[in-house]
Amino acid sequence: MLAQSCAPEVVEGNIVATDRVLNDLTTSSSFTNAEVFKKEVSRIAGIKDNATKMDAYFKLLDIEGATEVVQFIGARDEEIKDYASSLEKTAALSSEQAMEVAEALKKSLKGSLE
């Protein structure tokens, strides 16, 4: 599992940040039609085990392993498109919605590490 390599307080901080970002996005007007995404976010939000929950969030972006998490957090604009493309497929989002999610998550996760 991905989150096992992180300290519990880091995992908790990442979960809180991710929950907040995704909740804000799912309730925004630009995600009104994003039913698959909303259902997936709701399903993951219901997971009780923090490590499993964090792994499920990262799998939306096709991220597995600590190295890939670091790459995602440090991704440049061109690189973030690959993660958004994965999210487009896994959560049935438009390319614009997927980019918005990927960028918001990257910013949030990066901020929780500073």
Describe the protein in words.
The protein has 114 residues and is an all-alpha fold. It has one domain (2-113). 73% of the residues lie in helices and 0% in strands. The protein is built from 6 helices and no strands. It has helices spanning 8-26, 35-45, 50-60, 66-73, 77-91, 95-113. Helix 1 packs antiparallel against helix 2 (35-45), helix 1 crosses helix 3 and helix 1 runs antiparallel to helix 6 (95-113). The chain is globular.
Topology, please?
Blueprint: H1 8-26, H2 35-45, H3 50-60, H4 66-73, H5 77-91, H6 95-113
Shape: globular
Helices and strands, in N-to-C order?
HHHHHH
How large is the count of helical segments?
6
The total tally of domains equals: 1
Helix content: over 70%
- Give me the secondary-structure category: mainly alpha
- Total strand segments: 0
- Major sheet: size, sense and barrel closure? none
Sequence stretches where pLDDT stays below 50 over 5 or more residues: none
Mean pLDDT, to the nearest integer, reads 86
Q: Beta-sheet strand percentage?
A: under 5%
Cα-based radius of gyration, to the nearest Å = 13 Å
Gap between N and C termini: 24 Å
